[in-house]
Structure formats: structure tokens, C-alpha cells
Amino acid sequence: SQTIHQWPATLVQPVGSPLSLECTVEGTSNPNLYWYRQAAGRGLQLLFYSVGIGQISSEVPQNLSASRPQDRQFILSSKKLLLSDSGFYLCAWKTSFATDTQYFGPGTRLTVL
Amino acid sequence: QKEVEQDPGPLSVPEGAIVSLNCTYSNSAFQYFMWYRQYSRKGPELLMYTYSSGNKEDGRFTAQVDKSSKYISLFIRDSQPSDSATYLCAMNDYKLSFGAGTTVTVRA
Fold first, then answer.
1. Chain A interface mutation, best of B25, B33, B42, highest count of A Cβ atoms under 10 Å
2. What is the pLDDT of residue B102?
């Protein structure tokens, strides 16, 4: 069966510091991978998605970047965090079949102080 | 106008009641419809998935899709305190679009 991992689970960082969140998927090959941010009461905002190694699409231009160095690894980064980057970050995966849906990881709660 | 509209609630019901949740959407290209359940401080988990108009039942949960009205619903029968969570509707063409989520509390 497939599993998705995210770490760290929680993170408190000062403004201006760098960020690296990691997501890995087990039990599947060539998944589509997604990064979302969830703010309280505002639903899920798609940040980036990737259909293959090195292929990144950005949905919302902002202070963040994403990379996919390996087939089942997806990384969310920032060089300098802003207060507005605080939120709950979720990674998700799906197969390449259009009819399939997305499955989410446990999330990382980021607080920028 | 958002592509997907969902009343954020909160919704509070007594144990055993029927919970009724709904979403409306504007994009006729949406073909697949999902409901996710999200417990506090956890990632969303897929609850129901359907791609046609009509009803789909899974235990105490029924998902209903009306494409002509661009309206989807989720019903929870015999609600339990363990059903207390935020419920997110989602639908896709080439990417998923989510509702804001409805927070449900089932009182024992």
C-alpha cells in the first residue's frame, strides 16, 4: 500500500530564516505530487505541483519554491521566511491517471515569528 | 466568485442526527467530485469519490451530485462524536479545487 510522509510535523522559525519541508511517498512510482497551504477558514491553496522529476509548476507566485530531486521526493523551500508564510503545509500525491484523486500527508504546521 | 462555494459553518448537531453538507460550483468542466474529512491538526483523508450525477452510498455516508444544478451534498446518518471534523468538498478538471470546509461538531 502507498504511504506519504512529511517532516517535520511542526516548525517554528524566525522571520528571514530559510525553510525546507520534505515530503516522500512510498509504494508507488511516478506519482504526481502537490504542495498545498491551508490557512484557518480559507481552505486549501495549491502552491506547486509536479508530474515528474525536475518538473515543477507554480500556481501562486510568492516567497516559496519547490523541487523534486527524486521520483518520490518533493521539497518545499524558502530563502527568507515572511510572517505571512505561517500555515499548515500539506503534501499530496496521486497516480498519473486523470480519474484518480489525491491523497494527503499528515502536514507540517509552520509558525513564523 | 470562487469556483467552489462551501458554507464554513460551524455546524453542531446531537449524536444520532443526520448531518447535511453541501457545495456549489461554477465550472461546468468539473467531472469528479470528492469529499474529504479532516480532523484537527491532521491531513485531509478521502471519504467519498464520485464522477456522475446521482447518489453514492458507503455505510453511513451518502454523496449526492447534481451536475445540472452544479450542487453536491454529503449526508452523514446516525452521526457519532467521532464524526466531528472539518469536511471539505473538492472537484477537478485538471487540478483539484476545494471548498473552504465545513466544521462539524457532533454532541454526545
1. B42
2. 95
Task: Single out the residue of A21, A13, A7, A11 nearest to residue A83, CA to CA.
Answer: A13
Q: How far apart are CA B46 and CA B82, in angstroms?
A: 16
- The tens digit of pLDDT for each residue in B29-66 reads 888 999 999 999 999 999 999 988 889 999 999 999 99
Q: Give the pairing of strands B102-107 and B11-14.
A: parallel
Q: How far apart are CA B56 and CA A20, in angstroms?
A: 40
More confident residue, A37 or A96: A37
Q: How close is the nearest chain A Cα to the Cα of B3, in Å?
A: 12
Q: For residue A8, which of A91, A100, A67 has the smallest C-alpha distance? A: A91
Query: Which among A42, A46, A99 has the least Cβ separation from residue B100?
Result: A42
The whole-angstrom separation of Cα B91 and Cα A60 is: 19
Across the range B78-83, mean pLDDT stands at 98
Sheet-wide strand order for A19-26: A3-7, A19-26, A73-78, A65-70
**A83 close to A112: Cβ distance less than 8 angstroms:** yes
Q: What are phi and psi of A36, to 5 degrees?
A: -120, 155
- Nearest Cα residue to A37 out of A81, A76, A95: A76
